[in-house]
Design goal:
Shape: elongated
Helix content: 55-70%
Distance between the termini: 65 Å
Strand content: 5-15%
Number of domains: 5
Structural class: alpha+beta
Radius of gyration: 44 Å
Largest sheet: 5 strands, mixed
CATH class of the largest domain: Mainly Alpha
């Protein structure tokens, strides 16, 4: 079955609602009019003059009580004592009161059929007023226009949903409720527009059609809550709902059974309570489904709170006290906000599975409508030429509308506010992290910064592309290095869902970062290859010459120098191999043996203490060399700048932090050697400590020097 495009459906719906409005205006203007606005005085129990046309103000002052009507042609009279004009017929609590009022208003309307009517004033005197059936549009009350505007809002917003999701049951039920709402408001506005009274059958017809619209509105919303977001009803529930609505309406029109408290309004209270129970069931079923729970929050906000306010300020006060707290148009306006709430829900949580292009369709539609409206105003009121008027309309609407449209798309569409400078910094941080194991952590941090998800988890399996899961609740993103993926849930800390724009943005970000990482990886591989070549050259060339020098050394002194140079060359080649690791416990034994050999002939006592629980702890070659050089330089400084009797070396490993301390006595000339002690040796040790992500401290107290290096073994 072919489906129409959304824009033509929305245009047709708007045209239809405008035709309905035109028919309502024509019907209201055809009612008899004498140029008087009537109110009701509770104390005198009769109508009073609230306002009049300008020409009648001196004849009929405000608050003048009208005791009755008289027909100038026949002389017949009709008392208005106890007659309350503009009363809402369904507000009466029983069928008896309802019928009595219809007959009373019909009797009053009989005196408004001729060309004039005489008002019998309570203070004495009579005023004859002409009657016209061509009422001017400005004489229609504000309530008439508000009711019709509210009805058009409900109809067009609900139609916009079904235009893009015509096959969804929830969308169909929403548009049915919108049609019922507009029907109720249109016929309600017609009997609210009466100046004094309408013929009994006309008022009965308008009242019943208003009731039918209200019934369709309420029962379709109830069915909507049964089917969305979770389907609580079985097959055939719609037929059951139609049967119940038909029975309810037949009872109201045929007056079979009186309801207690209030015949017309008590069923509304019951339907509201049923809606609360349905909402509670939906809430319970959606406890493990964040998406359904988010949708349900908007439904509760839109339907239950909107309808609850209507009950609180209008229906319940009339049922209990006979008088509403607020005018009826306030209640209808609040009820129409229900559809505005659905519109915001569609934008924020994509109710009824409508994508963000729902907002784009409305944007183009309202833009075109604005141009047409301004063009008509310029032509009709300012008498501009059509071509000039069209140009002015396009320019004026464009200046105001299109910036607002773009702001709305940015605000409600993607939800991404990208800081380009911050983004570049994050990509650079991720690329710098490639040689280590932190690249995926930087990638996760980058995604968190850009999307602010409510949660982020790691998947054990890999995904081949960025994709949306859970109808927008989750976004799966591959990691940058190795296997696995990340799952982001609910961007902007749960305030919206992921959209197609988010997928495109994340994919572009992933591709750009991957390309930069590929280039950076190639650079690292080139460096590694060049390093291997240098190591081979050092081994084959410099190493060979040093071996020759060691074998042909003329004395023990030169032999030791050659041996030291060869050892330094080996350490340098080991440091150039980033994949070579050594065991910390082996290093400790080697360092202790080295110090014992150096101090063997000096008479200095070596006190070695170590507290290293992790015997299998690995060090990189660079870490081992730096620690050894700090240890050796510290021993050399103690021998050079003091006359120690002992050297105490402590090695303490706490998690990933190694604390190395060297303590010696025999410092007798510290003050005079301040600059010497702070010379190149100490600076070199400080540099090596910083290279290992740590720090170095040196102090002298009471002839005892203490060198302490705190080193991080996870810094590389």
């Amino acid at each position: 079955m072919p489906v129409a495009a959304p824009i033509p459906i929305m245009v047709a719906g708007l045209v239809f609602s405008l035709l309905i409005l035109g028919g309502a205006v024509f019907s209201a203007l055809s009612q008899p009019w004498m140029g008087v606005t009537f109110g009701f005085d509770q104390q005198r129990n009769m109508p009073v003059i609230e306002s009049t046309h300008r020409a009648l103000r001196e004849v009929l002052p405000r608050n003048t009580a009208v005791a009755g009507l008289s027909d100038p042609a026949t002389g017949a009279e009709k008392t208005l004592y106890g007659f309350q004009p503009l009363l809402e017929p369904p507000s009466l609590p029983t069928f008896t009161d309802y019928n009595r009022y219809l007959h009373q208003e019909g009797d009053v309307a009989e005196f408004l059929r001729g060309g004039a009517v005489t008002l019998i004033l309570a203070e004495g005197g009579r005023v004859t007023l002409p009657l016209t059936h061509n009422r001017p549009a400005y004489a229609l009350p504000l309530d008439f226009w508000l009711f019709n505007v509210f009805g058009m809002i409900a109809w067009n917003l609900s139609l916009a949903v079904v235009a893009v999701r015509p096959s969804a049951m929830a969308a169909r039920l929403l548009v049915v409720s919108g049609a019922g709402f507009m029907m109720a408001t249109v016929f309600n506005s017609l009997y609210l527009a009466r100046e004094l009274a309408l013929p009994m059958e006309t008022l009965r017809l308008f009242s019943q059609l208003n009731q039918i619209g209200l019934t369709v509105f309420l029962f379709s919303l109830l069915a909507l809550m049964l089917h969305y977001p979770r389907c609580l009803a079985k097959r055939g529930s719609i037929a059951v709902m139609i049967a119940l609505a038909t029975a309810y309406q037949l009872n109201a029109s045929q007056q079979w059974m009186e309801w207690p408290l209030h015949t017309h309004y008590l069923p509304i209270f019951i339907l509201y309570l049923v809606g609360v129970l349905i909402a509670a069931a939906q809430w319970r079923l959606s406890r493990d489904e964040p998406l359904d729970r988010a949708v349900l929050k908007w439904i509760l906000l839109s339907i239950l709170i909107g309808m609850g306010l209507g009950l609180a300020i209008y229906f319940i006060p009339i049922a209990l006290a006979g008088e509403a707290l607020m005018p009826q148009w306030v209640m209808v306006g609040i009820a129409s906000l229900l559809y505005v709430g659905f519109a915001f829900g569609i934008v924020r949580y994509r109710l009824f599975d409508v994508q963000i292009w729902w907002l784009r369709i409305w944007g183009w539609f309202l833009g075109g409508l604005g141009v047409v409206a301004v063009d008509l105003v310029l032509v009709a009121w300012l008498n501009l030429q059509p071509v000039m008027a069209l140009g002015v309309a396009v320019v004026s609407v464009g200046w105001l509308y299109f910036p607002l449209r773009q702001w709305g798309l940015r605000r409600f569409g993607s939800g991404l506010a990208v800081d380009q400078r911050r983004l570049v910094e994050q990509v650079e941080a991720a690329t710098r992290a490639l040689p280590s194991r932190d690249v995926n952590e930087h990638w996760q941090h980058m995604l968190t910064e850009q999307f602010s998800p409510a949660g982020i988890e790691q998947l054990g399996h890999a995904v081949d592309d960025i994709r949306i899961q859970g109808n927008g609740a989750e976004l799966e993103v591959p990691v940058l290095h190795g296997q696995g993926a990340l799952v982001l849930t609910y961007p902007e800390r749960g305030r919206r869902l992921f959209s197609a724009h988010d997928v495109g943005y994340a994919r572009s970000l992933w591709q750009i970062t991957r390309r930069i990482l590929t280039v950076h990886d190639a650079e690292i591989e080139a460096v590694r290859t060049e390093r291997s070549r240098i190591v081979r050259d050092l081994h084959d060339d410099v190493g060979g010459h040093l071996l020759t020098l060691l074998r042909q050394a003329p004395s023990e002194r030169y032999e030791q120098l050659a041996r030291n140079a060869l050892q330094g060359l080996r350490e340098a080649m080991q440091a150039m191999d980033p994949e070579a690791d050594v065991v910390l416990s082996d290093c400790l034994e080697e360092w202790k043996l080295m110090l014992e050999q150096r101090l063997e002939s000096t008479g200095i006592e070596l006190i070695w203490e170590q507290s290293v629980d992790c015997q299998n702890r690995l060090l990189t070659t660079r870490q081992a060399i730096n620690i050894q050089r700090i240890l050796a330089e510290g021993i050399s400084n103690a021998q050079k700048h003091a006359s120690p009797g002992y050297l105490k070396v402590q090695m303490i490993l706490n998690n990933s932090t190694l604390v190395l301390s060297i303590r010696n006595d025999g410092v007798t000339h510290h003050q005079g050697q301040q600059k010497i002690l702070r010379g190149r040796g100490l600076n070199n040790m400080t540099t090596r400590a910083r290279e290992l992500g740590g720090a170095l401290d040196f102090e002298v107290q009471a002839g005892t020097a203490c060198l302490k290096a705190t080193l991080s073994l996870d810094s590389e």
